[in-house]
Amino acid sequence: MLIWLHKYFALTRRSIGVQLEYRVSMVIWMLSATFPLIMLAVWLPMAKDGPVGGFTAGDFVAYYLLSFYMRQMTAVWVAWELDYDIRHGDMNTKLLHPIQPIHDYISFNLADKIMRFIMFTPLVIIVALVVPGVNYVVTPLNITFFIIAVIGAWTMRYFTQFSLGLLGFWFSQALVLVDVFWMLFLLFGGGIAPIQLLPEPLKTLAYILPFRFMMSFPIEIMMGQLTTNEILLGFAQVAMWIVILLGVYKFLWTRGIRQFSAFGA
Amino acid sequence: MSSAPIVVSNLKKYYQVHDKEPGFSGSLKSFVNRKYRQVKAVDDISFEIDAGEIVGFLGPNGAGKTTTLKMLSGLLHPTSGTARVLGFVPQTRRAEYLRQMTLVMGQKQQLTWDLPAIETFLVNQAIYEIPDDQYAKMLDELTELLDLAPLLKKQVRKLSLGERMKCELAAALLHQPQVLFLDEPTIGLDVTMQTKIRQFVGEYNRRYNATVILTSHYMADVTALCKRVIVVDHGKLMYDGSLAELSARIAPHKLVRVELSAPMNGHNLSAYGEVLKAKGQSVEFLVPRSKTSETASRILSELPVADVTIEDPPIEDVIARVFEQAALARQDRSENDEDESGDA
């Protein structure tokens, strides 16, 4: 365990170093995630004359503020890294190390998350305090629930995209699937509109599909829309999805590497 | 079973590749009716390498050298046959194995491009689980042997090619591997740097009794480091033995250079051997090995000699001859065998 902490510490330290080399592009890239703000601008005028589907203007601000935060804290781009490494043979260099390459990839994302956490957490807190009508349930227990749900959301997004990226071992255009995934994620995860406001049958679907847990679920927790039982049930579902996604990752990785080493790069 | 650290038997790596004719119609044809052909990148190679040996792996581009090294380092699964390195089956990529070997490719790098090399070293220390004292000791040694001191804190992207290669080697050796696969470690480097890298590999081999397989296009690397060479061509093993014997077998001649003290008029120079060059007062003969001393004494007594030297022909020429002979043999074979061989 300790040795793993040590390895992750070393990898992540290196990754933060790389990120700091590109600090300007990093900040621009982070701030370019303005989609939630655009969606907020769409909803606000509609909520001016009264709540829309139970959402007041303040609720919309609260929702899209956290939507923005969720996008930051669960940002994943590993499919592009995998695509590059598979096609350019950089995967070989990673395979020579006595550590599974996924840890190397995760360390880069972890470094990014540390930077974003430092940058955006104070920002979100300040906006939440300043803008009237933004109400979150700020109890230690609820914040703990929120943090667990965010980590769950990140894990689900990361392993989904990692597995999609691994398809690059077989198809040179696996990245198209990442775009398809992204559309579904925006629609059923609550990126376009809160899923409570989706028309049927999309709404029912959104509660069945896994995308809700990648964005909407933690927001629902912070906005006090869920009972403790609903939250715990949600965690059980997240755990189930993570087990499934880990299984898919293991399956694709083992076969992908066999494929890769059969045909070479 | 042999106790040699590297044991390769009947190793084969065949690829299915498809050819595409140029242009849109070619793309269409390749989409509808894809024609595959088999490329035998490595075709039934066997050898053993003992602990502490440095073996030169020679062959033209596409001979199967890199493919073999990739199989030995676990990056490629063999089509058939087996390889065992330090008792491990490489392609299972066991961490215990990866911690004892290294593969350095002159054309690929592991150093993090945007950071100083020392950062990669620290990451490697952690993932190879190198204890602090051993890391410090090894880093000191490598710094001394490779003159790394002024380089360690410079961003890798600001290093010259040669400086980067030195750091690559250090990164690859921090964990004190017992087996080194070096795939053209001197490619693109100037002569001084080539010499340095070469001396370093020799020194590492002596200090740690490491087993080394080295590929290079620079014969100087091979002649300086390797007593034994393995020659491959089109995936087949052409020769495995000492470098001296290879010269003797393939080039059964010695090169005799004579500086004359007076211009030659009317002498029949070809009586002494095949005249390669006769320009002014200097002459070069190719003389059969068995007759070298006899011919030399005749030259000394019959010609006005100022200076005479006897050498082996350059190893480049010897190797070139091996490949020429191999190509001829292949032509003979291909008349009753339609199999294709090619790049790998």
Question: Would you give an account of this structure?
Answer:
The complex is a heterodimer of chains A (about 260) and B (about 350). Chain A is mostly helical. Helices cover about 75% and strands about 0% of the residues of chain A. Chain A is built from 12 helices and no strands. In chain A, α4 packs across α11. In chain B, the strands form 3 sheets. In chain B, strands 5-6-7-3-8-9 form a 6-stranded mixed beta sheet, sandwiched between helices. Chain B has a 4-stranded antiparallel beta sheet with strand order 11-12-10-13, covered by helices on one side. A 3-stranded antiparallel beta sheet of chain B has the order 2-1-4. Chain B has about 350 residues and is α/β, with parallel strands linked by helices.
Question: Strands, helices and their partners?
Answer:
The complex is a heterodimer of chains A (265) and B (344).
Chain A: H1 2-21, H2 23-31, H3 35-47, H4 57-73, H5 78-88, H6 90-95, H7 101-130, H8 140-166, H9 175-189, H10 202-208, H11 216-222, H12 228-263
Helix pairs in contact in A: 1-7, 3-4, 4-7, 4-11, 5-8, 8-11, 8-12
Chain B: E1 6-18, H1 23-32, E2 36-49, E3 54-58, H2 65-72, E4 80-85, H3 95-98, E5 101-105, H4 117-127, H5 132-146, H6 161-173, E6 179-183, H7 191-208, E7 211-215, H8 219-225, E8 228-233, E9 236-242, H9 243-250, E10 253-260, E11 274-279, E12 282-288, H10 292-302, E13 305-311, H11 315-334
Parallel strand pairs in B: 3-7, 3-8, 5-6, 6-7
Antiparallel strand pairs in B: 1-2, 1-4, 8-9, 10-12, 10-13, 11-12
